[in-house]
Specification:
255 residues; alpha/beta; Glutaredoxin; 10 helices; 8 strands; Thioredoxin domain-containing protein
């Protein structure tokens, strides 16, 4: 029942990276904080020495991002004791260096590139607002219900609203709404295989660390969402849970 959407390998691989708050005391941490305040992506480059690989990565970063208003480069030398919190957050002393970690303005970790990176990879790491929201929620171990809406004033499907209001799921569920025809979200919705030409809402259902439970028609009910979550093994650890017991019920309509 559980399936991983093809094309989301990078998306899935990085959602488990810790997304804890970075201290604002050090120079690099302050730069990351200011980038977030300015709605910019922070490209944090960890390095040990100014060797050939480091110089090459720095050059690619600068040539790719220096003219962009939505990105800042934050170099971090792992021997700098003042940067210990940022280094510890990414366990930078144990990853192949140099390495570049990309942080969205909301604090989500978009990806980490060890040793080498291309300009195309750097640009691809600047994800859409909806993808950043989904990444952050998944990194916080939350269930994500993405609603692709046909119009800007469309209401969230009632089944999704009821699922979010269920006390069993409410605190660990994030509902993300996006306009299906928003050009900025086209790439992300295509990755999720969410159709963007429908006249009704489409629901993409995800669970941590990056499991795509399914993509459904907006008519899906609260009970069906709970059943699908249980069938994917992402509901809870109680085998006697009512959702586990009903997981074999009739399947909800797929998109």
């Amino acid at each position: 029942m559980t399936r991983i959407v093809k094309g989301l390998n990078v998306f899935i691989a990085i959602v488990t990276i810790c997304s804890s708050t970075v201290s604002a005391e050090s120079r690099a941490s302050q730069a990351v904080k200011e980038a977030a305040q300015n709605d910019q992506f922070a490209f944090v480059m960890f390095y040990r020495a100014e060797d050939a690989l480091t110089q090459q990565m720095r050059q690619v970063l600068e040539s790719s991002l220096s003219t962009r208003d939505d990105a800042v480069i934050v170099p971090v030398q792992i021997g700098d004791a003042t940067e210990h919190e940022l280094i510890k957050r990414f366990d930078a002393t144990r990853i192949p260096l140099p390495a570049t970690a990309v942080l969205a303005p909301n604090g989500a970790v978009c990806t980490v590139y060890p040793q080498r990176v291309s300009s195309a990879q750097l640009i691809a790491a600047i994800v859409s607002p909806a993808q950043a929201k989904c990444l952050k929620a998944l990194q916080e171990q939350k269930i994500v219900v993405l609603c692709a809406q046909p119009t800007s004033d469309a209401e969230v499907p009632s089944g999704v609203t009821e699922f979010k209001e269920d006390l069993f799921f409410s605190e660990r569920t994030e509902v993300v709404s996006v306009l299906a025809t928003d050009p900025a979200e086209t790439k992300f919705l295509n990755q999720l295989r969410v159709p963007t030409d429908r006249t009704n809402s489409i629901v993409a259902f995800m669970a941590p660390p990056g499991v795509m439970i399914g993509v459904y028609d907006g008519s899906i009910t609260h009970a069906q969402l709970a059943q699908q979550l249980a069938a994917a093994g992402k509901c809870c650890d109680d085998e006697n849970c009512k959702h586990h017991q009903s997981a074999g019920a009739q399947q909800p309509p797929r998109r």
